[in-house]
Structures are given as C-alpha cells and as structure tokens.
Specification:
The complex is a heterodimer of chains A (219) and B (148). Chain A is α/β, with parallel strands linked by helices and 219 residues long. Chain A contains eight helices and twelve strands. In chain A, the strands form three sheets. A six-stranded mixed β-sheet of chain A has the order 4-3-7-8-12-11. In chain A, strands 1-2-10-9 form a four-stranded antiparallel β-sheet. In chain A, strands 5-6 form a two-stranded antiparallel ribbon. In chain A, β9 and β10 form a beta hairpin. The radius of gyration of chain A is 17 Å and the shape is globular. Chain B has 148 residues and is an all-beta fold. Chain B folds into two domains: 107 residues, no CATH class; 27 residues, no CATH class. The chains are: A alpha/beta (219), B mainly beta (148). Chains A and B meet through α3 and β4 of A and β11 and β12 of B.
Chain lengths: 219, 148
C-alpha cells in the first residue's frame, strides 16, 4: 500500500518500504542521496547562509541552525498564490501574476549572499511566468560555488500529485507531509532542467528508486 | 489566552499604539502597534489578536499574532502555531511550532562568554569567596526545539 501510495504521488513504480515509509502521523519518510550530499558539502564551516524556499518547517530551521548556520525561509509557492499579486490580463477577462511585484516582494536579497539553497520541488508548482525569473534571482543571490538542491517529478506524475512539505529528519532522511492543495503545473524533462539551470556551473542528477529526480546544482 | 497573566501589563485588542513603546516590566500585547517596542530585560507576548509593525527587542518574545519587523530576543523567541512573522530573528534560543508562518532569517546568537575572574595572587585571594562561573546548561545550548 505504501509503495502504491508513493507511486501515485510521484510517479514511477519501484518504490518500496525501504525507500518510503508512511508514518502514523501522516508523514512519508524517504532517504535522499542528493540531500545527503548537499548536507555533507555545506556542513562546514559554520556561519553559512542557507535559504529554504519551502513552507516553514521547524525541523528544517532547527537542523540548519543546529549546524551553526544562519537559516533563511521564504515559502515561494505559497506567496505565488497570494490573491494580492494578481492583476487583470490584457484581455481584461482573466488574471495574471504581476511578476514585477512578486519579484520585488520575494527573494529580494543582496547579491551573492547565500551559500546554499533548498529549492525542493518549487519549480513544479510555480506559475509559468515565475519559473525563469525565480531561478534567475536564485542565481543572482547565490554565491559562486554555492549549492542548490532541487526535486523534480517524473512524467508519470499526474496533475493531481499532491503538494508536499519537506522536513529534514536527519542527514540523509526527509519526511514528506501533505501541504496545501497546490496543483502540479508541469513536469520538467532532463533537458528542461539543464536549460533551467543554464547559467549555473554544473548539475548532477540522482535518480532514486522511487523515480524522483534529485538535482544538485553548483552556482 | 494561555499566556495572559494578571500580573503583567496588558494592551487589549482594541488598543492602537503608534510610536515608541518601551517599558521595564513584562507585557502582553493583544492590540496593534506600529513603531518600535523595547522591553530590554523583560518579556513580550504578542497575543493571537496582536498586530505589530515594529522592530521588537526584549529578553523573551512569544508571538501568537502577526508581526512585520525584526525580532531581537536576547534570551529566547517563540513562534506559536498561529504566528505570522515577516522579519529577521536574532536570539539565543528559538521555538517554532508547526503551523507558524515565517519569512525571514534566524540568527542564533551564542551566549556571551562570561569574563574569566581576574587572577589574584595567593596572598591577596580571599579564602573561600572566589566566584565560580555558572556552567551553561544544556537547555541554553539547544538552539531550537521542534514542537511537532
């Protein structure tokens, strides 16, 4: 049942209980090679600036500050659903995101300030108009050599794939908890992901047994 | 209203303050403040109806309402599950409940090292009155407690 549930969430078909385990309190536990490598790289020295772009997670903030780093948190997907940032489209019938205002209110940091960024699966849930500006801004605010960890759904994931909050459990394990009902906007293929991070220095893919693509990107 | 105590100063939910708010006693704030809040060595609790647009400085800050501004809690800062904070936190210890919304940064300040007692020669040292530095407790070192 667990593996079936996980397949439904992320697509793919080989997840098993060694990879994902749903806890009694509604969280799914999964080991993450990409996260493991991310943490290994950023562990030392203390005092680094780490930006978490997911929903506020006490365990993430605890983990990052516990390493002696300064933790930053911005829930970019939630902010992109704020009714206040929508303006009428040119046709006057529909509404669109005011990208300029969104980028003024979010990710507005000094240039090259962050040592690492936890992007999670944010691009999969962002409005099309925001994906490129957000990644460009992340590039701008991340130090050269800085690290980014992203997750991307496989093409097997359907539009109803639930949105999850990522909680750090330990140096190699994440816990996934259902978040608000945000809709999966798209599925990137590998070429799309490479293009998305075109301005970055290098990109490394990890394919888990549950067919989640984890991406470690160096600025 | 679990943090309300009758022995602390209380600003009710219909009260609006614009300007500098300072004091030398604990404060429970359930109203609206725009400006700055300075309580130095005392605690501030922002109740569930509290709305603050101010930089806050106190020994201990507990947030249940909405805050826009930077928080400096020299001892500890606590975000309850109903808290909405847009601003940076600087403190020694922090507690964040699951469900709290936070946009900003957290800078954990290490406790200031106590100055070493001045070395005195055996001839001038009092027999048994030398002060002993208080050891730092483990709870003071814990940077963050997850209350999930």
């Amino acid at each position: 049942m667990v593996s079936g549930f996980f397949r439904k969430v992320f697509g793919g078909g080989s997840a098993d209980q060694t990879v994902a385990e749903e806890h009694a309190h509604g969280r799914i536990s999964r080991r993450s090679t990409g996260f493991q490598e991310f943490i290994r790289t950023i562990s030392l020295p203390e005092g680094q600036r780490i930006l978490d772009l997911g929903p506020t997670s006490p365990s993430n903030l605890s983990f990052v500050t516990g390493l002696g780093h300064r933790a930053y948190n911005e829930d970019v997907v939630l902010e992109s659903h704020d009714p206040g940032i929508f303006i009428p489209s040119d046709d006057g019938k529909t509404k669109r995101i005011d990208v300029e205002r969104f980028m003024k209110d979010n990710l507005n940091h000094e240039k090259e300030i962050f040592d690492a960024v936890l992007l999670w699966d944010v691009p999969d849930y962002l409005d099309e108009a925001l994906v490129k500006p957000v990644v460009e801004r992340i590039h701008k605010v991340t130090k050269p050599g800085g690290l980014l960890l992203g997750f991307f759904h496989t093409r097997d994931a359907g539009p109803d794939a639930p949105y999850y909050r990522y909680h750090i459990a330990d140096k190699q394990t994440l816990e996934l908890q259902r978040g608000p009902q945000f809709q999966l906007k798209r599925v990137f293929n590998n070429r799309h992901i490479e293009n998305l991070f075109h301005d970055f220095g290098s990109i490394k893919f990890f394919l888990g047994r549950d067919n989640i693509r984890e991406v470690l990107v160096v600025r | 209203m679990d943090n309300y105590r009758s022995d602390v100063a209380h600003i009710g939910k219909s009260v609006v303050v614009k300007g500098e708010l300072s004091g030398s006693e604990d404060l429970y704030l359930d109203g609206e403040v725009e400006g700055s809040i300075e309580l130095r060595s005392h605690s501030l609790t922002i109740g569930p109806n509290g709305r603050v647009k101010a930089n806050v400085s106190a020994k201990e800050v507990v947030i249940q309402g909405k805050v826009e501004g930077n928080i400096r809690g020299t001892d500890r800062v606590e975000l309850r599950k109903s808290a909405v904070l847009n601003g940076d936190i600087s403190t020694q210890r922090i507690v964040i409940e699951d469900g709290a919304f936070f946009k900003g940064s957290i800078d954990i300040q290490k406790p200031e090292a106590k100055p070493e007692p001045a070395k005195v020669s055996a001839a001038t040292a009092p027999a048994a009155s030398a002060s002993i530095p208080t050891p730092v407790t483990s709870s003071a070192q814990a940077p963050l407690l997850d209350r999930n």
